[in-house]
Amino acid sequence: MKKIQILGTGCAKCQKLATVADEAAKALGAPYELVKVTELKQIMSFKVLSTPALVVDGVVKLSGRVPTVEEAKQLLG
């Protein structure tokens, strides 16, 4: 099961990234767990410079912007 984490404080872009990641993961059909990480200390532990950020199985795949659903599917795949 893939673990997908959305790093961000809950801003509009963070919420949009969560929606896009969820849609992409559903389209891929693989089992996954989607977790929103909103605590600043936890976000900083990933060493991202800007949010929102997408983390898949502990690896930062994207930060600072919201990808398209197609791009998110590639990042999750």
Question: How would you explain this protein's 3D organization?
Answer:
By secondary structure, this protein is α+β, with helices and mostly antiparallel strands. The chain has a single domain, classed as 3-Layer(aba) Sandwich (Glutaredoxin), CATH 3.40.30.10. The chain is built from three helices and four strands; from the N terminus they run βαβαββα. It has helices at 12-28, 40-45, 69-76; strands spanning 2-7, 32-37, 53-56, 59-63. The protein has a four-stranded mixed beta sheet with strand order 2-1-3-4. Helix 1 packs across helix 3. The longest helix has 17 residues, at 12-28. The chain is globular and about 30 Å long. The mean pLDDT is 97.
What's the arrangement of strands in the largest beta sheet?
2-1-3-4
**Which CATH-level-2 architecture?**
3-Layer(aba) Sandwich
Give the topology string: H per helix, E per strand.
EHEHEEH
The outline comes out as globular
Reported by name, the CATH topology is: Glutaredoxin
**How would you classify the quaternary structure?**
single chain
- In the CATH scheme, the class would be Alpha Beta
Number of domains: 1
| Low-confidence parts | none
User: Counting H and I runs of at least 4 residues, what is the number of helices?
Assistant: 3
CATH homologous superfamily annotation: Glutaredoxin
Round the mean pLDDT to the nearest integer and report it: 97
Distance between the termini: 12 Å
